[in-house]
Amino acid sequence: MSGAQVVVVGAGAAGLGVAAALSELCIDVRLLERDAIGASFRAWPEEMRFITPSFPSNGFGLPDLNAIVPGSSPAVTLDREHPTGADYANYLEAVADHYELDVETGVDVTDVRPASESTDDTPAGVVVDGGATDGFVLETNRGLRRARFVVWAGGQFGAPRQGPFDGAEQCVHNSSVDSWDDYATAGEEFVVVGGFESGIDAAINLLERGCTVTVLDRGYPWAFDHPDPSERLAPYTVERLETLEGADRLSLVGGVEVERIESNDERVTVVATERHPGDAEPRFEPDSDEIGTQRRVTVPTRPVLATGFEPNLGPVADRFPETDGSIELTERDESPTTPGLFLAGPDVEHRGTSFCFIYKFRTRFPVVAETIGERLGVDTDPLEQYRESNVFLEDLSCCEPDDCRC
Ligand SMILES: Cc1cc2nc3c(=O)[nH]c(=O)nc-3n(C[C@H](O)[C@H](O)[C@H](O)COP(=O)(O)OP(=O)(O)OC[C@H]3O[C@@H](n4cnc5c(N)ncnc54)[C@H](O)[C@@H]3O)c2cc1C
Description:
The protein has 2 domains: 2-157 and 309-403, FAD/NAD(P)-binding domain, CATH 3.50.50.60; 168-305, 3-Layer(bba) Sandwich (FAD/NAD(P)-binding domain), CATH 3.50.50.60.
C-alpha cells in the first residue's frame, strides 16, 4: 500500500490547483484521477467555450480569471480569451508539468475512510510522516492507498442532474453532447429544459445550425440582473444572444415548471405548468389566472436537459453533511465530521455564496494548503504569493450575500 502526506482525488482545475499550492510548501502530494488530467473539460461539447474571459493581467496583481495558480495565465498559454474545454485541458496539463505534479491516472477512488475506522484487511494504524498513527485509507480499483490528509476534488461533471420529472430518461443531458454538428440538422425543432448558461449555449448552437428552439425555465435567467456572476448570465452569453442570427426561431419561455415528458409516435411532449416566479423576480409577476395553467410543447427530437450538475462526492458524500442543499464545511473547507478531509472546487459554499467559478474557488486553495502545512509543521510563507496576487480568501465576511465583493 503506497502512501503520501496528501492525496488529492481528481486532477481537474481544483485538484491540480490545490496540489500546486501544497507543492509550494514541499508537501508530498499525489493526485489520483480515474480518467485523465482535465478529463471533464475534454468532455465538454466541442463548441462550448469558457464564459469567464482569460486575459494576461497578472502583472497588475489581477491574475487571469481562469488561472489556477497565480503565476500562470491561460490567455498566454492558449492565446484564447474564451478557451474551449480541450484548450483548457491543455493548460491544465501544462500546469501539472510545470509543477511536476505526481498524477496517477486510471485510479478510481471508491472508498475513503479514516485509518481509525479500518477493517480487518487494512492496517489499524497507518504509519505516515515518520510516526503519526492517524490518516486515511483509500480504496481504489488499483488497490489501497494511504494518506495523512485527503482533499476531495471530484468536481460536478460526473454527476449531471437528470431532471426530477417523469420521462427525463427520454432527454439528453447537454454534457453528453460531443458536438452540436453531430446532434442537430437544419430545420429540426428542439426543446431545451433550463435557460441558464448551458441551456442558452445549447439553444444558440442549435439555432446556428438552422433549428427552431423553445427554452423552458422555472425563472427568467436570460433577463435576470444580479451583482453575483453565479446568479446571472455572463455578458459573453448575453452578447451572443443579442447578436444571434435566426433569433426569430427562438422562444424563451420563463416561469414554467417542467412536470413530465410524454412520448407518442416518435414525437415527444414536454408538459410544464405556469408557476409563480418567486420573490427574486418580482418584475415577472404573472397574471394570477395563469398560475397552474398547463403548457405542452411537442417536438420530434429528444429534449435537451440543461439542468446542471450535482456535487460528485462519491464515497465521501456521507462525510460532508448538507443543510438546505449546501455542503457544510468548516471555515478552512474541512469536513465538520471527518478532520483531515477537505473539499476543493465548485461545491464550496460559505455564508450563502457559491464558489462555483474557477476564479472563486481558486481563492480557497491556499487556505487548504496553509491548514495542512501548519498541521504538518512546515513553513507556509511560500503561500504569501497568493496573498500578493489577491487569490487568498481568508476573511469569509466578504461572502455575506448582501455584500459580496468576492
Ligand atoms: C459546460 C461547462 C462550462 C463551464 N464554464 C465555466 C467558465 O466559463 N468559467 C468557470 O470558471 N467555470 C466554468 N465551469 C465550471 C468549471 O468547469 C467547473 O467548476 C470545474 O471543472 C470544476 O473543476 P473541478 O476540478 O472541481 O472538477 P473537474 O474538472 O470535473 O475535475 C474532477 C476530476 O475528478 C475526477 N474524479 C471524479 N471522481 C473521482 C473518483 N472517485 N476517483 C478518481 N477521480 C475522480 C474526474 O475524472 C475529473 O477529472 C463550467 C462547467 C461546465 C460543465
